[in-house]
Specification:
Elements lengths: L13 E6 L6 E6 L2 E7 L9 E2 L5 H11 L16 H10 L8 E2 H7 L6 H9 L12 E2 L12 H11 L9
Parallel strand pairs: 1-4, 5-6
Antiparallel strand pairs: 1-2, 2-3
Helix pairs in contact: 3-4
Length: about 170
């Protein structure tokens, strides 16, 4: 599998914005054209960076389309920072189809490490691009919702949005 990630130019400054969403306020960060972070509230503005609300039109329009049920995946340049293992886990998250879930063990098997479900869970939990890189689609082996950096209520909302039911969330 080839890497879905792009390189963010470290010479470029970090830009950020805040947006309202059906799952609460989101902080978006990018370097150049590459999206580097999606953070759930509560958060504080990045210490190193400039607020630039006009630099995120592509991201906000795709998130709005996702929340209204009009978009099932994202077409954005992504540059998460992580270890090679984390990047492999996050790349595997991109392979989970919209509206479907898998367990941590199944995700571990997808990356060729079937006994690494705890490590996969830790990497999943440190995903810097939630929603866009759909870590909410990973559930416990029993089918129960387990761990989500944005909280289980947000995880349930995102999974409900992606279910066959008509979208209830509107921006």
């Amino acid at each position: 599998m080839h890497s879905p990630w792009v390189q963010a130019d470290p010479a470029l400054p970090t830009r950020w914005t805040q947006i309202a969403s059906p799952v609460g306020e989101l902080l978006l960060t990018r370097r150049g054209e590459a999206l580097t972070g999606v953070t759930f509230a509560p958060f504080s503005a990045p210490a190193l960076g400039t607020r630039d609300d006009d630099a995120f039109d592509d991201v906000t329009s795709q998130l709005e389309a996702y929340f209204t049920g009009e978009r099932t995946d994202f077409d954005l340049p992504l540059a998460p920072r992580g270890t090679p293992f984390q990047l492999a886990v996050w790349a595997a998250l991109l392979e989970i189809p919209y509206g479907q879930t898998c367990s941590y063990g199944q995700l571990a098997a997808r990356i060729g490490l079937p006994h690494a479900s705890r490590a996969v869970g830790a990497a999943n939990g440190s995903n810097p691009l939630p929603i866009v890189v759909a870590c909410h689609r990973v559930i416990g082996a029993s089918g129960k919702l387990t761990g989500y950096g944005g909280g289980l209520d947000r995880k349930r909302l995102l999974l409900d949005l992606e279910s066959a039911a008509p979208p209830l969330l509107r921006v």
